[in-house]
Amino acid sequence: MHILVLINGKYEEAVASIALPIVTPEILQTWLTQATTMGETTWAKALRRWIRETIVIG
Question: Considering the entire predicted model, what is its pTM?
Fold first, then answer.
């Protein structure tokens, strides 16, 4: 799993998402893997819970 960012017209690998810096390739891979093993509703609820617990706004 790789996250790419566009820099000077070229894509380069990044350690995290620019839009969501908390999201690393490892975290993304974990959630995508869980999506294949959990039911859709259960997975979506777990993801929303992780977002609420991980991303503190304000």
Answer: 0.69
Let me know: does 38 contact 52? Beta carbons within 8 Å: no
Domain count, the chain: 1
DSSP-derived secondary structure for 11-50:
EEEESS-SSSTT--HHHHHHHHHHHHHS-HHHHHHHHHHH
Determine the structural domain holding residue 28 and report its residue range.
3-54
Nearest residue to 47 (alpha-carbon basis) of 34, 58, 57: 34
First to last CA, the chain: 30
Question: How far apart, in whole angstroms, are the C-alpha atoms of residue 45 and residue 31?
Answer: 12
Question: Is the model's pLDDT at 20 over the cut of 80?
Answer: yes
The alpha carbon of 33 is separated from its chain's Cα centroid by a whole number of angstroms, namely: 12
